[in-house]
Every structure is written in C-alpha cells, then in structure tokens.
Amino acid sequence: MLLLLAALPAMFWDGAADTAPALRDAGIQQILVPAARLDSWKSVPGIVAEAADLEGAVKLLTPTVNYRVNEAGATSSPWLVANGWRFIRRPEGRYYYDVTGKQAALAAAEAFCYGANAMIRTDAAGLKPLAGMLAFLRTITGEELPPAADIGYIDDGSAVSGEVMNLLVRDNLLFQLVTSPDRRLKLNVKLGTREYPLEDAGNPGAVAHEVRFNLTDEKRSVRIYGSSVVVARLTASGDHARLHLLNYAGVARKVDGIRVRVLGQYPKHQLSLADGAGVELLDYTLEPGATEFTLPELKTYAVVDLSR
Amino acid sequence: MAAGARLFAGPVTEPVYRVVSFYKPAALPGMPGPYPGQVVRVHSENSIDAQSDKVNQDMVRQMIASGMKTLTGDSRPEDAWARFISPRDVVGIKVNCSGAPRIRSSPEIVAVIAESLIAVGVPAKQIYVYERFDNQLKTVDYAKYLPEGVNIYAAETTRGAILGYDPKTYVETSFFGEDDTRSNMVRLVAETFTKIVNVPNLKEHQASGVTGCLKNISYGNFSNVARSHNTPKTYTRSFIGTLAAVEPVRSRVVLNIMDGLRGVWHAGPFSEMPRFRFYPKQIMFGTDPVAMDHKLIEAIEEKRKAEGAVSIFDRSMSHVGERNSNPNINHYIREPGHVEYASKLGLGVFDNASIKLKAIEL
C-alpha cells in the first residue's frame, strides 16, 4: 500500500515580526507562530506564517548522544537520546521539540524520518541549520512506503514497555506494533509472557538483548557496522526500499563511514545525503539474500533508495 | 568462506567465528613459513643505552644482518632477505605503536628493514610502514629515519573510521552482545601488500598476557577488536589466532622481527609507568610467530619473576583489579594461552621441545 508523502516538520517561532530579517537570512520561508502574533507576521513579506499552539503537543527530547567515556569495554556503547519509539507508539500524535543550535537540524531529520507531525522551536543559532535541513528534506520525494519490520511488538502502553521500544529502536531491531501475534513477522514480543517475563522488564536493555537473541542477527532486515550512534529506519514495498539513516552524534561528530547490510537484493541505489555533496556509496555488493554498501560519511541524515 | 553456528549470544563460553575471506592461501603460507619452530635471538649490550634510551643504529644494523643470516644460513644478509622478498613485492612493515611514544617498533630497526628491502630491489614507493591508529603512529617520527619515498600509513585517521578496512574480508562474532559483530581486515593488507614484515615489541599485555608477533598481526590488522575485552573477561585466547589465520594475512606475513631493545613487563601494551619498562637489548627473528611468542612468554615470565610479580598465567580473581600500579594487580584475567591456541590453527610450533633457539651475542 502506498502512503501519502511524509509531511515536513515545521518551525515554531515565537519571536516578534521584527525578527523576520534573521529568518530570511537563514532561509526560513514558512513558520508557525502563536495565534497572538499571527497578525503581525501576516504583513511580513517573504515568510508565510500560520498560527499554531504548542499546547497539547507532546514535548520531545533533544536528540543526541551521551558518551560514557569512563566506561571502557565491549558493551558500554554510547547512550542515544532518540524519540523514534514515541512516533511509533502514537503515529497520529502532535509533537514539538525545543532545541537549540545545530540540534534543530537533527530534530527535523528525526521527525521527517518517522513521518511525524512535529514542530521545532529553536533559537537564533538554530535557524540556519534548521533551514538547511528543511531544504534538504524537501528534496526527498517519492511515494512513502510502509515501514518494514521484523518484529511484532504488543505494547501495553506502560512506561516500561515504552522503554523497551526505545531500546529496540536504538538497537536497530525493526518492529511494528501489533495487537496480537502476527505470523507474518519473524518474531512477536509481548512483555509478561514466558519468553519476556514482566519481572525482567525492569532491565529494558536485557529485554532488547533477548529479543535480538531470539530474532538472530541473520534475520535482521538492517545491520549497521562501524558505528553505534546511527539509527536506521526502513520502509519497503515490492521492488523498492527506502533506508533512513540518522547519526545522533551528527552535531558533535560525523561518522567516518558505516557498512550497511539490508536483507534483499537491490541492484539499484540512489543516495541523498544532508551536508554531503559528492558523496557516493562505496563497495556496493549484492550478497546472497542481501545488499551491502558503505556510506563513507554521515553527518546527520541520509536517505538511501534501493530498487530492483 | 566458512559459516558458523548462530553468532549472536553473549557473553559466551567459546565464541563462534564466521570467517569471510575470498583470498586463497599461498602454496607456502608465510606462517609458519620455511622455518617452523626456529627462533634466532640476537643480543647486544651495546644496542641501546638504558640511561639515555638512545639506540645504537650501527649495532642494530649488525644485529639484523646477523639475525637474518643465522635464520637462513646465508652468508650475505641480502641473500637472506631475498628468500622472502622479491623486487616486485609491495611490502607492508607492520609496526606497533600502542605503547608509543615510550615503547614502539624502534624507528632505527624499521629503517634498517626498509633499507634491506630496497637493497634487494624493492622500490621505496612499494614499501609501507603501517599501523592502525594515526594518532599513535604520529607520535613516532618514522619519516626522519626512513629512506625517502617509503610510505607511512594509518588505517584509521580518526578512531573508528572504517574506510581503511576491507568490507569483504572480516571475522564476525559476538562476545558480549555488542551490536557491531565484524572485525575487518586493513584494506592495504587485503588489496595491496604482497608481503608483510611484522615488527612487534617485547611486551606483557593486560588482556592477552603478552603482545608479540601474533597479537601485532591480528589485532593490528583488523578493526573493532577491543570489543573482545570486558573486565575481567577477554576472548583474546581464541580471537588472536583466529584473526592471524585469516587469508591473506596468514600467507603474506613472511617474516617476524621482534624489537626487544626495550620491553614492558607489566601494564602493557602501554608504557605509562616507567617502573615497568626494561631493556632486554635483543631482537628476535623467525617465520614462526608461535615459537617466537613462546620465547616472548619466557622472557616476560623471567622478568616478572625477578621483580617478584605473579605469573601471567595466574588466574586468581584476587589479582584482578583497577590499581595495576601494583605489579600483582591486573585489569583482566590474562590469556597467554592464545599462543598455544594459535599453534592448533597451524600457525606455528608451541611445543618447547620442538623449538630450536639460536642465541647470538654481539
């Protein structure tokens, strides 16, 4: 089934109309403003304003990475602050970010990646990064494909369940919400069952670990090698797949290459990369039952369209 | 390509390895090579001044010539080198800079090796001094010592960068449940070099017990290997030999020259605490990394015994801890058994009774 094209995230700006030059300089052309300011913005040339209200919208966390530098070892991976699970839990929800500086670009990319209805409030330092990302997102066209999932997850709506979903997202264990086990999926997960006892859910990381173990790496639709701060989202239908890649450390440090494995053979590809002119996929290979390639750098966000 | 059982688990008792390589072994793989079980050790009191740390380059040149002649039985060093290297080869000199700047493959030794390669007809531009990490490599000014034209290369210009590695040649496994389960071979090793000269140091290692020939050509030639350590457990026992045996590493490492002018007997591979440095004043030669590392174990054990420290084979948890300024405390349970394990993969001779050591004094 083909879905509608993903909506762009919108910038929420509560500054007065005399801040318009700063917005224009940054390349911002459309904004959402508090209803009380709408009239003053209506007369500003070059910027289209609409009224919006943050009231009732769910505030999101600033997407980022917290490095745990004093915890050396094989499993002390960085802690990703990501919102993907919230979008999956409530795809119809209204959301907003309150982010500063370059984080605004990552926030916009994250929301777009999940097709979320999200507003982004930022500061003056965030205007240019956000405008740049929004301009990039406008270039990502084509039909939106349904999310690909390996796992059916039965969400009981609890905080613990939400945290398990958060870790599944961060660990690139692709899932979709189901209300009952779906035999078409490779694995179904419900907390409180024999496989996933509720008493173990106090450690959501261990639950995610168990899910991965039961699914097996071989059956994962997407694998990322070379970075622990990149989150993937895959949509697919028929002969087409679209892979979204978000670098949660993008603002602080670009990723110097990741190797990606996607199940299914896709001989054709097209890369769209924010802040990455001239970059191409390397070592593109078709393996038995899978496609592999290297993305040589990832600053914030990339979209890879795959097709047969 | 060999497929293993389900890879992901963790932590595991014995890891399952999936080795992916499309390279075929040479008719006579470099390891253990033409001299299995043979080790030549050349010692000279005048090779390095323990007070000033200054290396006597002329003596190093004599030691290397003597070692190569003794190993091969040739009367001229250039004939000895020509047994391993031809003018058409592209040669990687695998140095070790993990303990730099205080302990590293001495540039004086590396320079003599490069000169020897050039002497048998290898153009300087076909010689690469290489290491994994650029920041470590840069602490040693190899360029100052090397003949003009010799390349100096690091696989990772920034930590974690993957472009210096071959995406099609790797070992896949999971030790502790880490998500990135691949360790890829340095791309130059896979795609460019036809021969490799391995130049490790003489060091104790907190995880693997010792770090010599095998560790330098395994962990030094693959990405994402530190994941095998997770205090106090490490999987170095089987991982080191497994990596070293992957083609084309196994075939192309044709010579091991262990720099033992300086040594580290505790808290290695680093050298942050001066009291754990010492001066063995020796260089070892061989094609068999297992036999040479067996002699390395003996050297480290002898030094530790002399210093009153526990054996590297000690596995008591009472000796595992953070404060490794105490030579009886270590961060990990050491795995010096990796040397014997490698022998079971056919990389060399571990049985001491079958190892022939020729000791030369200059």
Walk me through what this model shows.
The complex is a heterodimer of chains A (308) and B (362). With 308 residues, chain A is of the alpha/beta class. Chain A has helices at residues 20-26, 38-42, 84-89, 103-113, 124-138, 159-170, 204-215, and strands spanning 10-12, 30-33, 48-51, 58-59, 64-66, 79-81, 94-98, 117-121, 151-154, 175-177, 187-190, 222-225, 230-237, 240-247, 258-263, 268-273, 282-287, 290-295, 301-307. In chain A, the strands form 6 sheets. In chain A, strands 1-8-7-4 form a 4-stranded parallel β-sheet, covered by helices on one side. The model of chain A is unreliable at 1-5 and 70-75 (pLDDT under 50). Chain B is α/β, with parallel strands linked by helices. Chain B is built from 10 helices and 16 strands. Residues 1-5 of chain B have low confidence and may be disordered. Chain B starts with 17 loop residues before the first strand and ends with a strand. In chain B, strand 3 (91-94), helix 3 and strand 4 (127-133) form a beta-alpha-beta unit. In chain B, helix 1 crosses helix 3 and helix 7 (236-244) crosses helix 10. The longest helix of chain B has 18 residues, at 289-306. At the A-B interface, helix 7 and strand 17 of A face strand 11 of B.
Q: Helical region count of chain A? A: 7
Helix content of chain B: 10-25%
Which range best describes the helical content of chain A: under 10%, 10-25%, 25-40%, 40-55%, 55-70% or over 70%? 10-25%
Tell me which CATH architecture of chain B applies here: 3-Layer(aba) Sandwich
Provide a brief overview of the structure.
Helix content of chain A is 22%, strand content 30%.
